[in-house]
Specification:
The structure is a homodimer. The first copy, chain A, has helices at about 35-50, 90-100, 110-120, 185, 190-195, 210-230, 245-255, 265, 285-295; strands spanning about 5-10, 15-20, 25-30, 55-65, 105-110, 130-135, 140-145, 150, 230-235, 275. Chain A is of the alpha/beta class and about 300 residues long. Chains A and B meet through helix 6 of A and helix 6 of B.
């Protein structure tokens, strides 16, 4: 049996996996994201034995961005303008392919997570469009339309949506280095830490910061519903693991929609509409393996 | 040569066309949207001679909404919950097909307009995703991904985006009957008339209401850019015909993006990125004919 590789290339850590599907991951390793040279070398070493044995059919890369995903571009496969020191204009796709000489699929971490959640879960296969939103240190959105990740000029950047900001209730100016009080600037884990002086993990369940957080996430989801009319939304990431978050957000989404979108999924079955990731915190890596699975069939 | 029919079914008027393409419209008629019975009968009469002569191959309907576009639904082709008196739960698709017995394509007015602008303009064919936003009495957004209008639970409703609302600058509470100060509630022609006590057509060019309007439209476009990463945005509708609006909006879109999306289209060529409709105010009707053209080939 042929094996597939998956790399979840995050700003904090890289996760590498080899396997064939979520039930058969042969080896998994994670290590901190240091310099591009060191980190890419370490990923290469992880996969090299499987390449040498002839078992590895393809690799998928699920990367932090922004990325150049335009196949006609001379910088296809590059991480473009990240604030992460040393990682701007890094040819992640080209380096991995050059080192390992197998077909490589390449997309954003969130597109890969969306793809994985749809690809590996039979009940999600027919749900189109399909959305994955992560709320962690940052906020990102992946979108699958007709079975393929949405690409255009670049890729979705809905983590930076402009949203209502009630300055009386929330005088925090926002923490996005580009936009200040965009969605990510108001509701990412980083912005919560900046606003409250403590991390989301340590913020007590009764702290009013949570109700504010639920409101921003719900407003973001409402805009995603208006934009794509998705058939399912998977809401993942570290902040979204806070107990009760999904239930509270579902309730607020319904409040904000005000009955405008006539669909029983929103009216009666929102518990089946906005869900935590079925693949847990492995959506990105297993999504990368799903992308590799498609790549080897090309 | 086979002929195609197009119906632009608006809340104020219906426009019916028969032809083969934008350069060959044989007959065109418009009449006010009164009762469903009377209006649908009038559309039927318009097309009947072409059906009886055997010339009409198919009809496209570009309708005001919200619509049921789910082919598996018992109410497929219905206008669902419109506030327009008498038009809720009207089977527009079924009535037209039942009366005329030709294949009928059915979509929202804005999806049809987006489809028409892409279908009939060779230079737009490869621009994917492709967006049409109308700012008129109301606000609507049509989206083409991979050559097809985007459908999901329902269809895009991005006219109701939640957006930043600076209450100091703009104390108007918004005019959307559902959401108050959503995009449509703040920036539609109806909301401008409500806020200023005069219609957009009569609002002087130096009135500060225009600068406010440009800001809301630009924020909406920024959210559309973050959501879809479209390769082109067509901005149409009566309000968008205000002289200088496109130029002012382009400038504000760039300001709000803050250089975040790395694309030469946004950085250097935004004049080719946000454009008025090439088909003028006939995008909807000619889009309906484009839909009919595809339908007859099915």
């Amino acid at each position: 049996m042929k094996l597939l590789g998956g790399i979840e290339a995050g700003g904090t850590k890289f996760v590498c996996m080899v396997g064939s599907d979520p039930g058969n991951v042969r080896k998994e390793e994670q290590f901190p994201t240091t310099t591009p040279r060191e980190t890419i070398d370490r990923a290469t070493e992880f996969f090299l034995p499987y390449v040498q044995s002839g078992e590895l059919a393809a690799i998928g890369i699920a990367s932090f961005g922004p990325l150049d995903l335009n196949p006609g571009s001379p910088t296809y496969g590059y991480i473009t303008t990240t604030p992460k020191p040393g990682w701007s204009q890094i040819d992640l796709y080209g380096e991995i392919q050059g080192n390992l000489h197998v077909p490589v699929a390449f997309d954003t971490d969130v597109n890969a997570a969306a793809f994985g959640e749809q690809y590996w879960l039979p009940e999600n296969r027919s749900l189109d469009p399909f959305i994955y939103m992560t709320v962690g240190t940052g906020i990102g959105v992946g979108v699958i339309v007709n079975g393929s990740p949405l690409h255009g000029l670049v890729h979705a950047e809905a983590g930076h949506f402009a949203l209502p900001h009630d300055w009386h209730r929330d005088p925090f100016p926002g923490a996005c280095p580009y936009h200040g009080d965009c969605l990510e600037g108001l509701a990412s884990g980083f912005s919560m830490s900046s606003r409250w002086g403590q991390s989301p993990e340590s913020l007590p369940a009764i702290h009013p910061g949570w109700d504010l957080e639920y409101d921003y996430i719900a407003l973001a989801l409402v805009n995603l519903i208006y934009a794509y009319s998705p058939r399912r939304i998977v809401l993942g990431g570290g902040v979204a693991q806070h107990p009760g978050l999904h239930q509270a957000v579902r309730c607020k989404v319904r409040q904000y929609l005000k009955g405008y979108v006539q669909s029983s999924m929103l009216m009666d079955k929102i518990d089946e509409y906005i869900l935590p990731p079925a693949l847990g915190n492995r959506s990105g890596g297993l999504g990368a393996i799903a992308m590799a699975d498609c790549k080897q069939l090309e």
